[in-house]
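User: Quick sanity check before I run a bigger batch. Here is a single chain. Can you write out its predicted 3D structure?
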Amino acid sequence: MKRFLSPLKYISGIVLIMFFACDDDYATVETDIEGITNFGTDSIKFPVVSFNRKLGPVQTNNLSSNLMGIYNDPIYGKTTGSVVTQIVPTSFGFNFPEDIAVDSVILTIPYYAKNIGTDAEGTPLYELDSLFGNEPVKLSIYQNNYFLRDFDPDSNLSEAQRYYSNSNQTINFDNFIGETLYQKDEFLPNDQQVVINDEETIAPSLRVHLNNDNEFWDNLFFFNTPDAGSQPEISNQNNFKDYFRGLYFKVEEAMAGNGHMMMLNFSQGNVIVYYSWVVETTIDENGDPLEIKDDSFLRMNFTGNRLNILENDPTNTTIADADANADPIDGDQSLYIKGGEGSMAVIDLFNGTVEDPETGSDVPALEYFKSKKDSWLINEANLTLYVDQNQVNGEEPNRIMLIDLENNVPIVDYFFDGSTNNANPSLSKTFYSRTLERDGNDEGFKYKFRLTEHLNNILLRDSTNVKLGVYVSTNVNEIQQATALEYDDTDTHSGSVMSPRGTVLYGSNTNVPDNKKVKFELYYTEPDK
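Assistant: Done. Predicted structure follows.
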């Protein structure tokens, strides 16, 4: 049923919408409404087809953060995340003293954690963020002997080298393991602050001593060689990255438990080599020799190439089966959405017919929509997707993303949304994409996207009605493109690659109950005839 608005209310609506559009688009509308006193608002549901698509191996190099650990999903099975990374000294031109020796080597990588107050003694309390699961894994840190190239030789070195989630199938870093630098059979992150010394503490971090067996670190920096600092291998960044090729953080199952997966902030991590040397020898009060030492350190940061290895359980065929049986014509009954080396859903708007109320006949939906260019003003357009609560168990992600598949970027409404929140990404871009809505039992119920400006582009600016992709996201601010290795026409984005989670949504197939189907609805205003 139509509602009738006064011209004043209608013009107020135009002013609000003009905030998101160029002046030329609405100059015509203002001319058309001159002299018209009544306007009606109404809504229409347009047809939409949705179907599954497997992503396969995805690009994982140079992400802002990295997944490490094991995540067991009741639908998609086990995913194991390991990391291979270069580390580079912060400066070169070393001028080491003679006869120096390594005292200790400490690796520090911050967890994502938020301060939640203090205890009775004033000690800061933290809560770990982006931690999935709470049982141990086996963690080993090895010297990596595989060189991570900057450029792709197949492109005549004109394009950056891409590394993918399946790198342990194509490269197999297990074949390039060097020295074992750390190993713990039952590793679990700690949410306590890290005490450095009596005066210094840092937020929760992976902070461990790296082994120096057989004087590995001394030899690495030629401490046992005369004039150590002049060696060409440690004279500049390129030489060093070829000489010492980085670290391999390898994750395996612990003896018991389901493990955990967590996000680590490698970009803020470092490895510090502490060393000392004798400056003089004196005699103590007992007449014994006493060495007086001086000390210093060198810092290495996780700069250069870094990649995530994401290995899915090969016995779980949920994604492969959904992709093999995908129905682009009638749509699928269930949409399987998973991050990492996972899957997404394709959304085909206006795929079908609608009834033309003037003729009573069915007409192509997109054709009918475009015929309203000079008579409709779009107030709001939404795409709603419902969670299949029969298949998920409350572990579904809070956010998903809607991507323009032709241009591999979020739809335009994302960029018009000013609610960006970098401090708390879960509350970012909520005008364009709501967080997961939950029912009275706190179970995930539905996701909702706003497509208003996306449809304005189609209606007013003759933009192409491109297919859209629905992806899981661990952080909606992360929209860097990431290539899907097996598909030329499908990419993903960094926010999806960095998410271990998945969900199942109802699709658009006729077997889906009407109140659970993907819903594409538009609210518009037009002059009353």
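Residues 226 and 277 are 14 Å apart (CA to CA).

User: Great, the batch can go ahead then.
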